[in-house]
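Question (not urgent): is this output format expected?
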Amino acid sequence: MDKDKLQGMDKTGYCLLPNFYTPDELTELHEILRIFHHNWIADNRDFYQQRAINSAYLTGKKYLQSAQRKRLFDFLASHKLMEIVTAILANDVCFMNTQLFFDPVQNEQKNYWHRDPQYHLTLQQQQEALTGPRVMHVRIPLVKEHGLELVPGSHRQWDTQEELQVRLEQEGHKNHEDLSSGLAVPLNVGDVLVFNANMIHRGLYGNDRLALDILFCDPIPELLQFVDESCLPEDGFLNILDNGKAFSNTLKIKASINQQQNGH
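Got this back:
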């Protein structure tokens, strides 16, 4: 693995690692995610049919059996994956969540440019977040897909006028319009794409995409307060993982948050 390439993310906001996994290394993961996806659709049929493009909380207990969850935790806490994550976020990295991305059922549904924090931060706070703690997506495609389109460097640079008007649909613009600064990053099975959640990006639909995103972050309580504890491994799982530091770091911070909230 090229650690220099990963550390260069500070400039561009993203890093593509081609052929990081062999197809065989992803076979079991693909099987587990198909089971999750099937069960999630059955439970969220209207949302799926109308507008959904992703699901979340894959490591929870609702849609996977215990043995399937354990195999998923094994993958997420593998030395191979954690080597990428710690090269970027260091050993105090924390696990946040998982998401599964797929194509919308409605063919006319458009993709959209966004920064992840725009859905819970004001415009000024979004600007301040560019110099704040990091949240990283690790995307692992399970089929060959069009991938993502990114604006390189936008994790540290504020929007140009064009970018802001399109992203926030100002002055008659729509958030699905092409940006002159966009860079498409197609993905093959086995590739891994790491990118900063602050950067301007959009998913590119098509090819019946099925991609796992794992979200990691710096050890900041404000980022971790909403982590669903049911998605974290129990002691019986945690103790046998190859490299469970991202989970154990999150659990420690969550325990501290809970103590403070309970007045202890």
